[in-house]
Amino acid sequence: MSAILVIGELNEGVVASHTFELLAAARSLSDAGGGDVHALVPGDSSVGQSLFGGGADAVHVATNQLLQTELTVDAFLPPVLNVIENTGADIVLIAQTAFGRDFGPALAFNLKAAVAMECTGLTLDGGRLQATRACYGGSARAEVKWGSSVQIVTIKPKTLDALATDDSRSGEVTEVSEVGEARVKILGTEKAEATGIRLEDAEVVVSGGRGLGEPEAFGILEELGNLLNGATGASRAACDLGWYPPSQQVGLTGKTVTPNLYIAVAISGASQHMAGMSGSKNIVAINRDEDSNMVQSSRFAVIEDYKKVIPALIEEIKNLG
Amino acid sequence: MNIVVCVKQVPDPETPASQFAVDEAAKRVIPAQGIAPVVNPYDPQATEAALRLRDAAGEGTITVISLGPDSARDAIKHALAMGADEGILLSDPSFEGIDNFQTAAILAETIKKVGIPDLILMGRAAADWDMGVVPIGVAQLLDIPCVTVAKAVEVGDGNITVERVLDDGFETVETTLPAVVSVSNEFGEPRYPQLRQIMLAAKKNVEVWDKESLGLDPASVGSDNRLLALEALYVPKVESNVEVIQGDSPEEKARNLALKLREAKLI
């Protein structure tokens, strides 16, 4: 009997939003015949209850205090291995977070199973998982299938919508007490200085690339971003040049954003960047090259030097009030 | 301080989209005309980290390992030109088309044969498959700790402190040596080899090890033994329906864009 296991994470004591996104993916695999949806999260049974409403059929909580305060790969492996063994889970869904991107491969090598990172488009084919993933910096797509009995997948946060909470669903939470010995000790964490709204939460994102020509140009992009109550991002190329903080990088190796409005300024649209923002609902490109991939992928485009357009655009938006 | 650095040769990630092509039948990328493969962009940072640690310790050997075709020798030579000491190329016809599980297994076997060093460094991921699995796999197979996506490293007495990049900031962690650490672009600019160093590196011997010299079980390697099967590889299509904003001057275009955005209730 097959089953699906969602590996949950906490964010400041409550279940992280990306865990509910994984539950939505698990639910649709379950509806396609993938078996029951199990979820495991560090925490107590009250924390676990919310997972039923998000789509879980069975909930397990790893109760060791260490996992709730300092989640590490080595510490979390034993409870996860326990739940996989007890549930017969053959599909394991993990979020591609700083934790998940380490945990997925570690779990895979423990189980002699394959892991595919940052998958999209999960389907079942004869009861076995098939997934699509971007590779070659987003220039290509690979379709993969698993040769191992357990099939491990990571999914990037914000690439799926969570289900509407169903409060009528509830159940009994199973406690798992095991914990592994943490070989890596966390000494401290530091939040990146985000001026204003967090990139991932912003409804408007204004981003700049190498085509800006100079780091000072980000000043005017920030002005436009602030005017629209949005955040400012940058392409990998601009971050690598040291023009903007890496925490604001949008792309395959950076943040995934899905704002209502994404304004790409002097970004050609290398697949590396598109991978992080192509889910934006409306893209505006300001670029001198009409043939560039970003212009061709946008809803509206201005073919012009950004230095002339952005100050004028700021004035026009102010005039519109 | 003995360090192993694993590097990989990949198609140049700056290859323009128009020149990127895939052989869908062979499920392989077709090398772009006139664009040579390059060292994976994160790997020179791993080599740079190794050089700084070796030089701070005042002693030790940096061994560079690469798994790939004969051309991957260039990726090793690049690290040697930066200042690494020895190179080993893992090359065998049966290594073509293998998955990251086998790659990690072959690297782990090689490292055991070389002798477990104090530290194993790699780039955070390879720019071809974009997985980041191999550093963690090697650590699991060698049963040593792993710290990924490092932006700074400092070695103490039998331990290492690593500042690593998180989704929304940074984290400082400590673990015991030996360990695997994967290095991110935030580590900073790697040194650029000078002509003289490139010429010296060209003369350095790179050992070549194959399946037999590693003593690998033939049934464990090869594209037929993938744990993650590649069903298809293709270039996704882009359909354009862009509306180019018209206007006689940049100011007029800006005004028309603002009006369009307001009309579409986007601002």
Report the sheet with the most strands of chain B, covering strand number, pairing sense and barrel closure. Answer: 9 strands, mixed
Summarize model confidence as the mean pLDDT of chain B: 94
Q: SS-based structural class of chain A? A: alpha/beta
CATH superfamily of the largest domain in chain A: HUPs
Number of helices of chain A: 10
Largest interface comes to:
A-B, 87 and 76 residues
- Class based on secondary structure composition and strand pairing of chain B: alpha/beta
Into which percentage range does the β-strand content of chain B fall? 25-35%
- Which H/E pattern describes the elements of chain B? EEEEEHEHEHEHEEEEHEHEEH
> What would the CATH topology of the largest domain in chain A be?
Rossmann fold
CATH class of the largest domain in chain A equals Alpha Beta
The average pLDDT value of chain A, as a whole number, equals: 93
CATH topology of the largest domain in chain B: Rossmann fold
* Model regions low in confidence, pLDDT < 50 over at least 5 residues of chain B: none
Q: What's the total count of β strands of chain B?
A: 15
As a whole number of angstroms, the C-alpha radius of gyration of chain B is: 22 Å
Q: Radius of gyration of chain A, rounded?
A: 22 Å
Using the 3D structure, state the CATH architecture of the largest domain in chain A: 3-Layer(aba) Sandwich
**Helix content bin of chain B:** 25-40%
